[in-house]
Amino acid sequence: MLRTYLLYASMCILGVVIIARIITIQYVQGSKWKATAANMTTGYVTIEAMRGNIYAADGNLLATSLPYYDVAMDVNTDYLTDELFNSKIDSLSRCFAQLFKDKSADEYYRLLKSARSADSRYVLLHKAASYEQLQKVKHFPLLRLGRNKGGMIVEQNYKRELPFRDLAERTIGYTRDNISVGLEGAFDEYLRGDSGRILMEKLAGGVRVPINTDDDVQPQNGEDVVSTININYQDVAETSLREQLIKHHADHGCVVLMEVKTGRVLAAANLARKDSAEKYEESYNYALGEAAEPGSTFKLSSLIVAMEDGYVNNSDTINLENGTHQYADRVMHDAEHDVSGWVTVQRAFEMSSNVGISKVIYKYYANQPKKFVDGLCRLGLNEPLHLSIPGEGTPRMPDPSDKKGGWSAVSLPWLSIGYGVNVTPLQTLTIYNSVANNGIMVKPRFVDALMKNGKVVQTFSTQVINPKICSASTLVKLRKLLEGVVLRGTAKNLNNTVYSIAGKTGTAQISTHGIYKVDGKINYQASFVGYFPANNPEYSCIVIMNSPSSDGYYGNITAGPIFREIADKVYASSIKIDPSVSSTASANKHNAPAVKCGDFKDINNALNRMGIAFHGSGSTGMVDASIQDSTVHIASASYQKMLKQGIMPDLHGMNAEDAVYLLENNHLKVTVKGMGSVAEQSLPAGTKFNKGQKVLLQLS
To answer: How large is the average pLDDT for residues 119-123?
Structure first.
């Protein structure tokens, strides 16, 4: 009995404890646990705002957010009786299988049956359905009954889409994982808008339903960004760049087209080789972020400094010394080693002579290198441009006072031709654009305006970095230098009679940790930067190609054709930019063909077959051809006479067959590179030569 009494007492005590605990939870702590339960089943959910669009300058859509929908179902809603559910599940399964084609009807049937048996209140049927697909789903069996009766659950999400796919992809950019790239990253605070919030109740199975309260906040959609990109120019820039990259097996390249007066970037293409030799994608913004040694395109900046300091004129002469000159323990070389004698600074620049430009700078700044570097810094080459788009490369300018940091006896001459200094392609373009813009340096910009609900809320105007990079007299000299490069120099293959181009070629060796020759191989960076029309500049452009194949790494051969193709496209769509083009030039373009210099028999045969009349039928041998008043004029050339006197004639524009015939008949050893007509000759016109001397002809 004692054991029975003890057991009875224990049960009574346990009962009292349970009753006391219930009273405590229900009445003493009731409010606390009710609040906890409410927090577990209800809460505010953030509603993301719809991200703003990015437009091209002409209104074309470059980036937009499209809605996508996750379709789910509450298969155990109170209205769905077993009889109703079982009568419609077959047809519902077939509808989903036919629309989405991701599962069979049997698989959908088993998924719905299993969820029903498990008393699930939420079963995901399809992710990322389009708006059109959602409208069809709303008419499916059961789901057409709506949320409460049919159990249909729809969650809306947004996905960023690029209507033009990879066109200007890097410039458009993205934001993800705390990484901001391009316009998406630069203007994220405007594009993303303001998120809203809504009170939601969580049901069994993870289903959330809204509870409308006065505290709900509706999202405010983001603003739209109107960029400066011209989609047509962007297309031709990327297409031309890709074709040349494939042709020359280059590693990567970039193109930027800009309006001279405003700094508006109309096209920005950046392509890099992927796994396939012919597959190039936009994976990095080289134009913005790659700070590297520019090579010969830097020579313009060097001469700006020297001219502004009053040391140099275009007509000054310099001895090229057979294309080699020694500075301390290093020898400077020209690409054309047979060039010799005294030439003007104008001609040295046109030929892109390393020896000529470096000797000019060394002559005046050898004892005051800091003055030269300070002049470069006045051009802003030591500072970033502080552009709106993130990821700008950091320039590097050597310091003459830092002997331990690498400044040596050879630093000045190599700096003058673009080595030992790092700048981005956009910095280089900004300098050349300043020359085209009457000395006014403007900042490149990528955005014209911000819009909200179709109305402009903010505009972006041209920003002047430097109102005057040089004097008016220096500006005249600089333009003459750049025009000469295309008329007579290394970019003669870009010259045309329709509109004028001014610019500079560049062929720089690429260093790897300060070493230019790796495993016996030298990699090159080919470039061309300039503006057009030369007499009334409206557009500036830079083209850079990195590591082209060794059979064609000069700037005029690899980068030049890209520049020309873009310029042709712009000119064709903006004839008004060059009012100086005469009616005669237009007539020549349409009524008379371009005739190269060559053998009279060949030219006579070609013109007769085409039914084109010409003057000069009495000519024989090698002849010159020109267009005058829409008519072809032929006259005996002076080639043979000059060659017999031991003087090199100007062979530019002549076809390879005729040029080789002429030179070899006059006892010269000829080497030909490339295809087409003569674009460069190692012995300049007017140079004395000896029998047996070597001549290199670079064809266009």
So the answer is: 84
Pair 167, 231: CB distance under 8 Å? yes
Residue for token pair 């600089």: 478
- Is the CB of residue 352 less than 8 Å from the CB of residue 505? yes
The strand ranges marked E within 102-232 are 123-129, 152-161, 174-176, 179-181, 196-202, 208-210, 224-227
Q: Which two tokens mark 45?
A: 């959910």
Would the pLDDT of 115 be above 60? yes
Q: Tell me the per-residue pLDDT of 627-675, one tens digit each, with 9 for 90 and over.
A: 665 677 776 666 666 777 788 887 877 778 878 888 888 888 888 888 7
**Tell me: the pLDDT tens digits for 528-565?**
999 999 999 999 999 999 988 755 667 788 889 999 99
Does residue 662 contact residue 639 with C-beta atoms inside 8 Å?
Answer: yes
- Exposed / middle / buried, residue 530 (Cβ in 10 Å: 0-12, 13-18, 19+): buried
> Of 165, 182, 171, which is closest to residue 267 (Cα–Cα)?
171
Q: Quick check: 512 and 541 in contact, CB under 8 A? A: no
pTM higher than the cut 0.85: no
Instruction: Write phi, then psi, for 98 (nearest 5 degrees).
Output: -70, -35
| pLDDT of residue 680 exceeding 50 | yes
Distance CA 54, CA 60 (A): 9
10 Å CB burial of residue 577 (0-12, 13-18, 19+) is: middle
Q: Which helix (H) or strand (E) holds 431?
A: helix 425-436
SS3 (DSSP) at 208: strand
pLDDT recorded at residue 585: 38
Contact assessment for residue 28 and residue 21, using Cβ atoms and an 8 Å cutoff = no
Q: What is the DSSP letter of 27?
A: I
C-alpha separations of 239 from 169, 236, 268, 569, 582 in Å? 14, 5, 12, 12, 31
Percent above pLDDT 90 for the chain: 47
Chain-wide mean pLDDT for the chain?
A: 85
Return the structure tokens found at 117. 């048996």
Which run of H or of E encompasses 509? strand 502-509
Beta strands in 106-194 (DSSP E): 123-129, 152-161, 174-176, 179-181
- Return the higher-pLDDT residue of 270 and 555: 270
